Structures are given as structure tokens and as C-alpha cells.
Amino acid sequence: MKIRNGVLVNVEKDIKECVVPDGVMSIGDGAFSCCRSLTSVTIPDSVTSISNWAFYGCKNLKSVTMPNSVTNIGDYAFCGCTSLESVTIPDSVTSIDSGAFCCCTSLTSVTIPDSVTSIGSGAFYGCTSLTSVTIPDSVISIDSGAFCGCTSLESVTIPDSVMGIGSDAFAYCENLENVVISEKTIIGYNAFYGCLKLKLIKKLEEQ
Questions:
Q1: Structural domain of 186
Q2: How far apart are CA 100 and CA 90, in angstroms?
Q3: pLDDT digits (tens, 9 = 90+) for 158-185
Q4: End of a domain among 12, 43, 78?
């Protein structure tokens, strides 16, 4: 692997397991991209950022340990990690960027901490095994397509803090039945399009 100025920039494509060295501050753009043999990664407390496309297409990646030092998960950082089954996002993370976990088709559960304020466009797009998600009170925006195509998603609670839900945010969540949402929240175009089982959007009373 190569490290430049505290940024991990390149990893051998045939690597199977990786313990990122202490002192690395950032997993650089595409550092592990298409490392198809990679099964596990341990990230040290020195890392504050997981950059764009960092683990893109690591189809055998099953386990990721992220420390509480990480504040940002970049665009498409774990996109296409089709073997990733669960993710615990640390309390230090404030944003989950566009496509961060899109097409993680084995992902059944995800922990979004109270520190997160925004869920980016397509962040969990096509996570077809995801059955439920709890969005914390810290979240202000759920961007377009954030959970689009999560065909196993059955329920979601959207807190009063969410000011807007982007277009197609929950489109084609065909098993989604229960949605709890504030009357103050602006719902974008086709936000729930194709949610064939959705019977009710419950409006919470303003406190």
C-alpha cells in the first residue's frame, strides 16, 4: 500500500485482509476500489475521512470497523460492496454522502447515529435486503433517491427534525407499509412512488 502525506492512496488489488496503519488520516479516493478479494478492513483512530469511492466494488468485503474519529463517509465510498451485511456508523460521522452504501445488496441493518445531519442522494439506493431503518432526530434532510429501490424495507420513522424529503427518496420500496412523518416535512416529487403497500402516512401532531 502507498501512503502520501497521511492519505492512503493505493492498495494492492489482490489484498484479502487489511489493518490500516496507525497515523493514516484519510482513506483516499478509490484507495481500495475494486479490491475484489478483500474481506475485512480495520481502520485506526487516526482516520477522520473515508473518501469518495474508497471501497467501491469490493464485492467480498464483509466486515468494516470504523472508529469514532471518522467524520465523513464520502460519495460511493462503499458502493457495490455486495457482501457487506451490517454497518455501524460511528457517532462522530456528520454526513453520509451520495451513494455511500448504494447497491450493498446484502446489507440488512444499518445504525445511523445522532451526529448525522444529512443522508445524501442515493446513499442507500438499491440496498434490497434492508428491512428497517431508524433515522435520528439530528437528521435535517433526506436527499433524492436516498432509499430508492430498498425493496425489503417495511417501516421507517422520520423524525420532526427532517425539513425535507427529496424526490424518489423512498421510491420503489414495494414492501413499505408504515411511515411516520411530521406535517411540517416537505415531501418531494415521487418520494414514495411505487410503494404499493403504503396505506398511510401518519401526520404527527405539532408539539
A1: 85-207
A2: 15
A3: 898 999 999 999 999 999 988 888 888 9
A4: 78
